[in-house]
Structure formats: structure tokens, C-alpha cells
Amino acid sequence: MKRAQALGVRTWIEIDRRALRSNLAEFSRRARPAGIMAVVKSNAYGHGLSLVARLLARQTFRGEKFGGWFGVDSIVEALRLRRDGIKNSILVFGYTLSARFSDAVRGGITLTISSFEGLAALRRARLRPAFHLKLDTGMHRQGFPEHEIPKLAALLAHWRLRPDGAYSHYAFPENARDSRMQRGCLERCIRELARAGIHPRIVHMSATGGVWERRDRYPMVRIGFGLFGYLRRPVAKNPLQPVLTWKTVVSEVKRVKKGERIGYDFTEQFRRDSVIAILPIGYWHGFDRGLSGVGEVLVRGKRAKVMGRVSMDMTAVDVTNIRGVAIGDEAVLIGRQGSEFVGADEIAEKIRTTAYEVLTRINPLIRRVIRER
User: Fold this and answer.
1) What is the DSSP code (8-state) at residue 110?
2) What does this protein do (predicted)?
3) Catalytic (active site) residue 41
4) Which of 71, 111, 128, 227 is the most exposed, fewest CB within 10 Å of its CB?
5) Bridge partners for 297 per DSSP
6) Is the confidence at residue 373, as pLDDT, over 70?
7) Any known ligand binding at 141?
8) How far apart are CA 138 and CA 349, in angstroms?
């Protein structure tokens, strides 16, 4: 209760500075000598865009500050980082409207060009931002596919546009054969560009999974989800530490009789006399409705099952077997309390999605604070 009262909020996110630093150090070691781009798109995967970027920008290794890039999805995120004092290089991965090119120039922000329409818009622009080319090596989202590279190279040379970088993305980094196929495609594209005199200074392919599997040795790697302590697939002896803990407080405690029902649609019936705790969070906050009747939270270091439907702003949990639960007790929705841990992976499995979605869907209005250990 003290933390909630001090912050003046009913629910909050704690960001573990030491865990973030430890994860960054682990990936720096694995990627060496490649430079690091810290991917903080989508509100830093739910952890807080500017808060995380500032923490990373202040990190020092071997006496030097983190000098790497930051990667974001949109010009809006990039400008927010500039507004909040981030001076590192920034790459925007997503599509940028040509009306925002001048903002990118003024902010010293590098954009991604992934189509001929985007390239033509860049040529017409009065102010031309720095840019990286996105190359489609098989994933078929953004990017110029291999058969279009000769045309791309010719236009770049003719229009005298010089990309500062070129990159692609592994679809399945855990699969060695697919990764070799994509890497080979990227290298052929880079050679084709070189034949036209186009030499991107920075080539990058690996994200978290690619670095973990050591798939290539390009000059830069992009680390996103791994920074926050998660991998796409479980591994033995994982040295990464989850960075985020999501907490709320118990707002009511009540006793219910055997046979009574609970929540919208009365989806659950109590099989015994029970004690329930009400938590002032719900699916609006990002606590998924799919956790109705199956999710668990931590109260007084023990697991408490979600009872009935998760509502928009409230959730009930069964604390019958947890002694002494009182209004104001902290409840952990994601993270550790005592010896128990509820991870985003566990939640994702219960609602049949990914940990990425679990974390990025946490409401950005919820306050994020630095946790000091």
C-alpha cells in the first residue's frame, strides 16, 4: 500500500534498471563486435518508451556510454524521444508520410524506404532525410524483393540518392536453413547494389533471435524483446531477466457463500464458502479478458485464481487459501512476489497468444516507474 499511496495510483509498472542493464550487457557480449540498436518501438514493448530509452542512453560499458541506435516504428515515437532528450541515432522502421520528411530532417532522424513510391517521394522532397533501405528477403512484409533490386539500384544512381544503410529481417531465426536462405538473399541484394555504385554504410539483419542463434556478423544488430528479458522460444539456462513488474492493490475483500455466482453472465459458481479480493484493473488496462476464470495473480506471495469474467475496470480473485488478505495489499499481475513468478509467457499460453502481445497491450496511460533493488 505504501508504494501505491506514494505514487497516488491504483496500478503501476515497475521497470528494473539492473535487469535492463544486465540484458543489454548479455546481448552486447553475444553480438560483439557489432553495434547495438535498441528497439524501443510500441512503447518499448509496453515498458515505457522514453523511460527505457533514457535508462539505456545512460548505461556505460567499459567506461563508455551506450552510443548505439534506437529503433522505433513511427516518426511520432522518434520525435517523442528527441523531445525527451535522446540524442542517439534513431531509425524509424515503419512507413512515414512524405509530409513528415521535414520533421525527420529537423530531428536528425533516419527513415526506412521500402517501396518505389517511397523512393519517388524522397526524390521530390525539398528536405531529404537520411534513410535505410528495407529489403524483402522472404518474409514478404515491407521491402524491395530481390527481383526489383536492379531497378532500385538504377534509380538510386540516377536520382543520386545514397542510402546510409540497408536491412532485412529473419522470419524464423531459430531455423538454420531458412536463415541461410534469407541471409544469402540479402547478400545478393547488397552485391547488386554495389555493382551500381551503391554502398550502404550499415547493413543489419539480426534481431533478438538472430543474435541469440548467432546467425550473421553484420556491423549492427537490433535488440528488442530480448532487452526486456524474453525470447521467442524457451531456452535452457536463460541468463536474461524480466524487466517489467505490473502491480495493483486489493480494493475490496468480501466473503461469498457456497453456490453463489460471480461476475457478468454468472460464468462461475463457488463450490465452497470463499473469500474474494477485488482488484481495480481490467481489460481496459491490458489485463486480457481471456484470463477470465483461468488467470492467476500473486497476493501475499501466493497464487490467486481469477474468478468470473475480467471486467473493463475490475477483476475478482479467489484468496480463500491466503490468510490475512486486506485492502491495500499489493497484487502482482506480471512479475515476482516472494518465491512465485507469473511471466508474460505464462499469460500468453493461457490466452493463446504471444508474450509480445501481452506486454505491448498494457495500457500506455499506466504509470511506469524505475524499480530500485
Assistant:
1) B
2) Catalyzes the interconversion of L-alanine and D-alanine. May also act on other amino acids.
3) yes
4) 128
5) 304
6) no
7) yes
8) 28
